[in-house]
Amino acid sequence: MGREKLSLEVEGVPLIQRVSDALTDSCEEVLVVGESSIRPEGVGFATGERPGRLGPLAGVEAGLAAATNRLTFVAAADMPFLREDLVGYLLEHLRARDVRAVVPHHGGRIHPLCAAYDREVLPLVSAALDEGVRAVHEFLEGMDEVEYVGEELRRFGDPDLLLMNVNSPGDLERARRGARR
To answer: Among 9, 19, 17, 39, which residue's Cα sits nearest to residue 79?
Structure first.
């Protein structure tokens, strides 16, 4: 992107603020793993213990380690259309089921950076990282007690928008067009 992407704006609101706003009412605490020049009010920041860039799974580990609540929600901070009711639904689904994670499945792939996790998976995440696993989807493939939700996502809006990340200038333009709908 050529610059810090979490400060990029959709409808005049930085991406990190949009995600924070979607999490605030459903989550007792909101933590960002990593750095951002924008620090939304009421948001904590955590850093990982592992040196080097070990990918998203290391970020999940850092977030789970810093979290004080058993039920957690992991969201990429560049999701412009994450919705509070979707977050609440996934957390409630986790609370009501005997599973360790509830993960959206849409468009032929899973979305583990928009999912609810039981914090007790932390030792499993750490062990996977120790074994060289870096991708969250690869970690989930080896874990029991994961529930995937798909069709029910439509009740919260267009899953293509709800689950999108801004990873390129094209994605940013798509998000800005989607916000104008």
So the answer is: 19
Provide the pairing of β-strand 114-118 with 101-106.
antiparallel
Q: Which two tokens stand for residue 133?
A: 């696993």
The domains of the chain are located at 5-179
- Specify whether the CB–CB gap between 100 and 145 falls below 8 A: yes
Assign domain 5-179 to its CATH superfamily: Spore Coat Polysaccharide Biosynthesis Protein SpsA; Chain A (3.90.550.10)
How many other CB atoms are there within 10 angstroms of residue 63's CB atom?
Answer: 23
Asked whether the whole model's pTM tops 0.90, one would answer yes
What digits encode the pLDDT tens for the residues 100-118? 999 999 999 999 999 999 9
| Tokens of residue 41, six digits | 């009010």
